[in-house]
Design goal:
Length: 329
């Protein structure tokens, strides 16, 4: 029996994605085979395709940072999941596929009561938003925050979770996307026609409590300048290259050495390898919020898994608000 994957054949745009057939194999020891239900299309998928990542994969390869599906088969010595279980995986590569193989010890339980398409953004975009808010920043009701890049997958997650947390929010996005910011109570700033530093300084002369920068460090210094004493800048997102990674880490270190009472941090899902148990608890909390209708991921478009090239082209168009999800036929 064969299955299909969407392969990045070489560095380039969505046109380099090709559908390839593979032979379905039995899972190895401690491995599970997952029949995909939903796969989020994320910015790391795009940057990996262009080779814009600190540790680029060797072409050809399959992108796809996360997947939700049903356990189809298990290998030897697998005891924590069973065939038929609904699970998710944060895999970094390999998600654009009808079947995915993954370490059974690193699977995330997913309630059968939630819609797979709505749950898919929780695996990457919402866990990043949740952790930057509640791990890195430790926000509390009434805090004043700026979200840089507020209309994308992580940005809209920050808006929803920030509203739940009772934050006073400002968000940067293009004019055509301002309606999603106002829907969640954030004051919108148009980066094309407004100087966000000037806008914030007029609105909050005493400074902000937190700035969340999802633009891979491009706004670091200006965002940091808007903090009050005791405030914190939290960055996240793919730095695109090893030199940029080192630059961002250097900036973060420098900000923390300045005698101005402010601080900075940079969040990475790589922490999951160190804090897997805590990640599982927080994913469970997000699934509960989804079940209760307290969060509702914004889905801009849905495509069949094998039409991932079209989904990538849409994401790169810059017109997307929220998330794009690939679905099994």
């Amino acid at each position: 029996m064969n299955y299909k994957t969407v392969v990045v054949t070489q560095k380039g745009g969505p046109e380099v994605l090709r559908v390839v057939e593979n032979e379905l194999r039995e899972p190895s020891a401690r491995e599970a085979r997952i029949k995909a239900l939903a796969v989020p299309v994320c910015l790391p998928d795009v940057t990996a395709r262009y080779g814009q990542t600190p540790f680029a994969a060797k072409y050809p390869f399959v992108v796809g940072y996360a997947v939700i599906g049903t356990v189809d088969a298990i290998g030897k010595d697998v005891a924590n999941v069973s065939v038929g279980d609904r699970v998710a995986a944060l895999i970094a590569f390999g998600g654009y596929a009808e079947y995915v193989y993954w370490n059974a010890d690193r699977l995330i339980p997913v309630p059968v009561s939630v819609d797979a398409a709505k749950a898919a953004p929780l695996i990457l975009n919402y866990i990043v938003a949740y952790h930057t808010l509640h791990w890195s920043a430790r926000v509390k009701a009434g805090d004043k925050v700026l979200i840089i890049g507020a209309s994308g997958g992580i940005g809209t997650a920050l808006l929803q979770l920030g509203k739940l947390a009772g934050l006073k929010m400002y968000g940067i996005a293009s004019q055509s996307k301002h309606h999603i910011l106002t829907e969640y109570g954030a004051a919108p700033i148009d980066y094309r026609t407004q100087d966000f530093v000037e806008v914030i300084r007029r609105a909050e002369p005493e400074g902000l409590d937190f700035v969340f920068d999802g633009m891979a460090g491009g706004y670091f210094a200006r965002g940091y300048s808007l903090l009050r004493r005791g405030g914190k800048l939290v960055g996240y997102g793919n730095p695109l290259s090893l030199p940029r990674t080192l630059k961002i880490l250097g900036q973060t270190l420098l900000f923390n050495l300045l005698p101005d009472g402010k601080s900075a941090a940079y969040y990475s899902t790589g922490l999951s390898h160190l804090y897997w148990g805590r990640f599982l608890v927080d994913w469970a909390a997000l699934f509960k919020l989804l079940e209760e209708g307290k969060i509702d991921p914004v889905i801009a478009a849905r495509f069949p898994i094998l039409e991932a090239a079209k989904a990538n082209a849409l994401l790169e168009s810059g017109q997307v608000i929220g998330n794009i999800v690939l679905l099994a036929p």
